[in-house]
Structures are given as structure tokens and as C-alpha cells.
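Appendix B. Chain record.
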Amino acid sequence: MKELKMLAIDLGASSGRGIVGTFDGEKLTLRENHRFSNDPVIVNGRMHWDILRIFHEIKQSITKTVIEGDNVSSIGIDTWGVDYALLDKNGRMLSNPVHYRDTRTDGITDHVAKKLPLSDLYATAGLQCINFNTIFQLAADLIDDPNVFERADRMLNIPDLLNYFLTGKMANEYTVLSTAAILDAAKRDYAFELTDKLGIPRKLFGEIVQPGNRLGKLLPQVLGETGKTDAEVINVAAHDTASAVLAVPTQEDDFIFISSGTWSLMGTELKQPLINARSEALNFANEGGVNGTIRFLKNIMGLWLIQESRRQWRREGNEYSFAQMEAWAKECKPFRSLINPDDASFATPGNMPERIREYCRRTGQPVPETVGEVVRCIYESLALKYRLTVESINDLMGRQAKVIHVVGGGTKDKFLSQMTADACGIPVSAGPEEATAVGNLMMQAIAAGEVADVKQARQIIAASFELKSYEPTQDRAMWDEAYGRFCALN
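C-alpha cells predicted for this chain:
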């Protein structure tokens, strides 16, 4: 086959990058051509995404493919879920998209529950009840401005918005829309019976397209800025976790994954949603995947705890590398203090080390004082949260997991990967590190007809990237004792 070159725009909550993927028929190789920070902006007490700056950076990445002669045939964009922009009838944004960590949705679930019982919402949408799901954000918009939907004509999630900026074409991609709690998980279509009860108009929601849809070429005015390219924009699995799960290098139908980054998205892949009283009690989400699959998972706070702690130490004048923090953590006494990573006190930006100390004071535990003690507390607590989640999945599926596949940037945390194997008592396979970009690129290759399906894509991924295995090594009794204390906190 002729060498296929593609551009993945992979946007995370703190940074974005453009990655050129080259597929030679057997293996995929990656080259980062552009990287930029993604910094929220607080204006008048509201936290926004700087979406126009993000779009500028995307165009810079495309420009570099032209200058460097990459001759990419397609472009795909993936981002985080839930957030969106409202556009008027002329296709112009009413305002910059609001960040999911903004406080405007504090208490919104109680408000929504008065009109729409949360159990009914779960029974249809099958998502975790999290106050930043799109349906809750839309309800908050209506509280802030009762006339907002008179001016708004369309709602586009972030990757769909950026695709619209590039092509002038509006479409709602399935995997990212599935994080909104406005879809019927079983029907894979809008659940207007939910939005109607909250006064959210149907006109906001457009055609749903599946991953692999060919959206179109770049607008002439975009080409005027980037230089000439015939690249076509493809709707990839636009929710970053959906792309990451596509990149899990396994041929098994039953597997557990952790897409590890700012969030730890942990779950399994199903052919149909699993929605019952037990899954609701355990707060599992049914999100859309490729080929109509369901990502049955839990959102766990993840490396946000480490990232935000590091930002606080930097604010105090201390620039610690991740390697330094891990080394100091290894020197500390194990299982001295534990936290529930998903405690509400850890959800927003701020002094994370002090919040962790306050949590330990509140729960009668030794207070972690040093950098190493704070980091070890986070790592051990995350590993134990993974064990709790594995056991919940085993219970719901009626089987025992044999291996955990960790993909994404968190695979660089070797200490955490080993702890995960020890805590869960099963092997961990880590890689690829760039799972989201890899899944993005593989969907473009499938759309191009150069890769047959997801099964073949996963074979190619396994052959293309180094995977690292971690076997349980530590005394199981130590982890069992810590697990008992951890469960008492949840």
C-alpha cells in the first residue's frame, strides 16, 4: 500500500498537540509536530476554555504539516467530554465555552432532580451522576439566563465545535455526545423526554454521526492561513477516552482498561449498555464507543491529584519533577495515610496538598507533611480505588479479570502501575503511552479503508508500540489490610 499520513489533534485538559501518524501497512509511527498549553481563563468569576486560542494552535499544527511536506490525507480531533458551545442562528458562539470545573453547577443536581428524578435520568442515559454532565450544565445556563435558549440555535461539544471551525459543517459525534446525559444509551439516539422536562429545546441538537464519518475539506479561509492541503476532516472517536479504548492492544473481548491521565477512566467494553439498580448504586457510566460499543466505566479523579499538587508546590517556588516526586514517595512509609480520590474537596483547582492534609485530619489519620508523603498517599489511594473498581466490575460481569490494560500518559508512572498490580493482585499491561492519539489515527486509517476494523487496528497497535508488564510482587496481606481501611473511607 501507499504510505498513509494523518494528523491527530489530541486535546487534553491541560495541553494539546498535533501528532503526525504514518502507517506503512504493518506498523504505525508517530511524530509530534506541535505542542501547546491549554489554560483555562477566569473572567468575572467564570472559568472558560480559551477556544479561539486552541483553534489558532490547531491551525499552527496544520500549517506545519504543509511546511514540512507531510501531505496528510486526513485530520481528526479528539478532546475531553461534556463541555460545549452554544451558537446562534448565524453560527456564531454566544460565549466562550465554560470549563467543566466551573462552580456554576454546584448544587445543580438537586435543582434538576425536582423536575427530572435522577433515577429516571440514569435509567435512560446510563451515566454517572456528575454535576458537570452536559445536561446539568445546560440546566445551569438556563438558571443564569432564562432567555439563553431564545438566542441559541445549536449546541456543539468541543471537538464538534473545532471541526465546524475547520469545515463550516455542524455534526454531533456520537462518542462525545454520549457523555452529555441527553442520549438514550440503548437506542443511541436523543432522549428528548429528558431534555423536554428541563426546558432545553430540541433545536439545539443536530445530526448524530458515528466515528469514521467523513466530514469534509477545510474552508477556503482556513486554507488561506494554513497553506494548501487536500486533507479531509474525519469524525474520529471524538471523546478522548473512546479513542484511547480503541487503542487498547488486546484481542480479547473481555478486558479491563484504565485510560490514565488527568482522569482515570476505568472499565470494560460491552456490546450493549448495562443499566440496573446495581450499576446505578455503584455509579457506573455507559458511554458510547466505536462500532456501537459501550464503554462501561467509572470516572476516577486520577493524576489530577498529582498535577494540582505539583502546581501548588510550583506556586510556592518549588519546581519538582515527576521523577523527583516518585523517588521521594518510594522512600516513605507505606499505607500511612489514605484518601478517597473522588472526595468532592479534591474536585476544583487549589491547594491540593493542604486539602489532602485536611482530609486526613478529618478522618483521624496521620497527616502527610512532606512531598513524598503526599505523593505516596495519592498513589496508594489510586491503586486501592482501582482495586475497588475491579471488584465492582467482576461482581457486575460475573467473572474474574485476568489483566488490567493501562493506556495513556499515566503509563509513564511506573510506580503507580506496579502498585496497581500489587493492589489488584493481577498483572498490569501498560501502553501505548499515546493511546488517545493512536486511537484517533487508527480511526482515520479505518475511514480511509486501509485498516479493516477495530480488531485489526488493535493488532497493528500491539505490533507498533512497546508494552510493559507488571506482575504482583508485594505481600498481599499488606494490601488487604490497607484495602479494609480504604473501603471504610468510601
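Further analysis of this model is presented in Appendix C.
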